[in-house]
Amino acid sequence: MEAAGTRAAIVDRAVVVGSLDGLEGLTIGRLAGDVGMSKSGLVRHFGSKQGLQLAALEAAIEIFTREVWEPAAAARPGLARLRAICAAWFSYLERDVLPGGCFMTAAASEFDGRGGPVADATRAAWARWLRVLEGEARTAIDAGELGPGEDPAQIAFELNAIAMGLNNARQLHRDPAAPAHARRATERLLGPS
User: Mind listing the domains of the chain with CATH numbers?
Assistant: First the structure.
């Protein structure tokens, strides 16, 4: 297998392992064994465990983007796009695209009180996503689709909290009613479709 293909296979496996065991659960030894190569061969691709973690995080962001943002991007900006984002986000969580649920939610919980490059990259990814949600909420408010007194940052916060709560309820509690609860909470926030 060529170097780019080997690296991609390692990263794919790292995302799966990271979704189940967290980014700290990613070890050079484990991944090397999983993909059938030596530790030194794996290190050549990433340089360190931190390099491996950052590569896995970047790949997870690409999956999240493909699964959540891209299906909603064609919707009309504002309320229609916010609803499309929520529909895609909930679908992503319900379909168990990754076996451990939302990698980004898990990374946020794992690194929320830490410093360093992996925590910084996780924070930056979430900050970008919250800006997307806030921008769509602002567009909806400006268009009169949501009340003029609404706070776009609050809407972004609540939508994020609903999705993180859905991930937690599905992964930790195995709650089959969680998707319906999330949809009702979203409807309360954004109004009926």
Answer: 57-190 (1.10.357.10)
